[in-house]
Write a structure and sequence with these properties.
Largest sheet: 4 strands, antiparallel
Oligomer: single chain
CATH topology: Dipeptide-binding Protein, domain 1
Helix content: 25-40%
Distance between the termini: 30 Å
Number of helices: 5
Strand order of the largest sheet: 3-4-6-5
CATH superfamily: Dipeptide-binding Protein, Domain 1
Shape: globular
Length: about 150
């Protein structure tokens, strides 16, 4: 149970527009990395992050055998679909401005690796991934009316 002082704007964690929507999202969804109590980046769904020397390629290795609530196993496809959902203007995601200007592409070379390629270096990109990219099953996102 989650107690909040007002109603949610919506229940799509990748579109959330209110503080309350963000607070419930942190209780339901997880991210590749998150923040510890001191504000340091720490692994969550990922086990490691490698940043290229030019700070334009961010490679995350996913934790193996992570299961979603529906029993599906987390793969890089889910990470890509989650970001694609945010980037799609039809989703009206309030998180789109954090990613659309900087993300050039997302690659999934294998089920446990996701590679974000940026248009230009972005010193806050890892923080954006940790703060705004909840990971949702790709099949669920594809089932939405707008699909992805």
């Amino acid at each position: 149970m989650i107690g909040v002082e007002k109603e949610f704007y919506n229940l799509d964690g990748l579109v959330a527009v209110s503080g309350d929507s963000l607070r419930y999202g942190w209780q339901i969804y997880d991210t590749l990395y998150g923040f510890d109590i001191k504000g340091n980046l720490v692994p969550r769904l990922a086990t490691s992050l490698t940043v290229s020397s030019d700070a334009r390629v961010f490679t995350y290795k996913l934790r193996p055998n992570v299961k979603f609530h529906n029993g599906a196993t987390l793969t890089s496809r889910d990470v890509k679909a989650s970001l694609d959902h945010i980037l799609d203007p039809r989703s009206k995601s309030t998180r789109r401005p954090f990613f659309a200007p900087v993300v050039e592409s997302v690659e999934t070379p294998d089920p446990l690796t996701v590679v974000f390629k940026l248009k230009a270096p972005d010193g806050a990109f890892a923080n954006k991934i940790a703060g705004y990219l909840y990971i949702v099953p790709a099949d669920y996102l594809a089932s939405l009316p707008m699909g992805v």
